[in-house]
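TICKET: design request
STATUS: open
ATTACHED STRUCTURE:
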């Protein structure tokens, strides 16, 4: 972990997190958004990726914009039939500093993530 953190400033990469949901409406928006926040503390950019969002629902879109302004999680409307047609509704805000404690915890709990840190 220390070696990764020491070398990280020189590495040309960004870490992304993605919280995937099948469908989102106003009643689940806050819950899903805060799950995305919680699961992105280790990443430079975090996204909430949803297959079905009613972008015509002004209350839902206004809430997403307010949450984005406060917390910076991006939102992607996923097109599962044609990934190239997926739309970024809100771009994630880039976080310069990562949560090193969370990176350490992830490396202890995930052999894949630990291996990733070793290769970087």
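STATUS: resolved
RESOLUTION: sequence designed for all positions
ATTACHED SEQUENCE:
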């Amino acid at each position: 972990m220390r070696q990764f953190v020491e070398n990280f400033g020189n590495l040309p990469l960004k870490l992304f997190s993605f919280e995937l949901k099948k469908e989102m409406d106003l009643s689940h928006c806050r819950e899903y958004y805060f799950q995305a926040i919680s699961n992105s503390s280790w990443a430079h950019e975090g996204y909430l990726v949803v297959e079905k969002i009613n972008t015509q629902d002004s209350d839902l879109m206004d809430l997403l914009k307010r949450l984005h302004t406060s917390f910076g999680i991006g939102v992607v409307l996923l097109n599962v039939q044609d990934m190239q047609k997926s739309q970024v509704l809100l771009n994630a805000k880039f976080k310069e500093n990562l949560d090193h404690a969370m990176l350490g915890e992830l490396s202890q709990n995930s052999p894949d993530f630990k291996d990733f840190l070793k290769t970087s």
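CLOSING REMARK: Residues 58-71 form the longest helix (14 residues). Strands lie at 16-24, 45-53, 74-77, 87-90.
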